[in-house]
Amino acid sequence: MPESEENFSPEQSWSRPLRLFALAWLLGVLFFGILALCPVRFPFLEYPLIGALSLDYVLHSLGFAWLAVGFPLLFNSRLMLCASPLLVAMLTVNLEFWQMHIPNRRFSEKDIVAGVIGVLLGTLVGLAVRRILHHR
């Protein structure tokens, strides 16, 4: 095997896309954080999509999935891989408690459940993509 192939690592070939992803991830985290603590209420989010499932819960799950998907892709530490889903799940609970003190916002157990589902899905997707990238 040529020497150049022996020293090849997936991180080298994905460094630019990974940096772009990191930037998009950080912007998404910032956007989601501002929206979560914003005192403005969006009534259209309350309309049901299917049964009791509203757009609010779907967006909640997607937002926390976006937060969770970044950790397996951006951090290599095993400790971070294990701790990040728990930290992001704790964040969803924390945000709900903070919303009790923000005008026009309310605490919702269903938002916590939607957030935790998003964390689990995002972590699984992040781990799957990480595995694919490391096996290239």
Give structural notes.
- With 136 residues, this protein is mainly α.
- The chain has 6 helices and 2 strands; from the N terminus they run H-H-H-E-E-H-H-H.
- It has a two-stranded antiparallel sheet.
- Helix 4 runs parallel beside helix 6.
- The longest helix is centred in the last third of the chain and has 26 residues.
- It is elongated and about 45 Å long.
User: Strands of the biggest beta sheet: in what spatial order?
Assistant: 1-2
**Biggest β-sheet, characterized?**
2 strands, antiparallel
Structural class: mainly alpha
Q: How large is the count of helical segments?
A: 6
Q: Average pLDDT, to the nearest integer?
A: 83
> Which value, in Å, is the CA radius of gyration?
18 Å
Q: Helices and strands, in N-to-C order? A: HHHEEHHH
The total count of strands amounts to 2
Q: Tell me the β content.
A: under 5%
Unreliable stretches, pLDDT < 50, 5 or more residues?
A: 1-10
* Percent helix: over 70%
How far the N terminus sits from the C terminus, by CA atoms, comes to 16 Å
Q: Quick one: overall form?
A: elongated
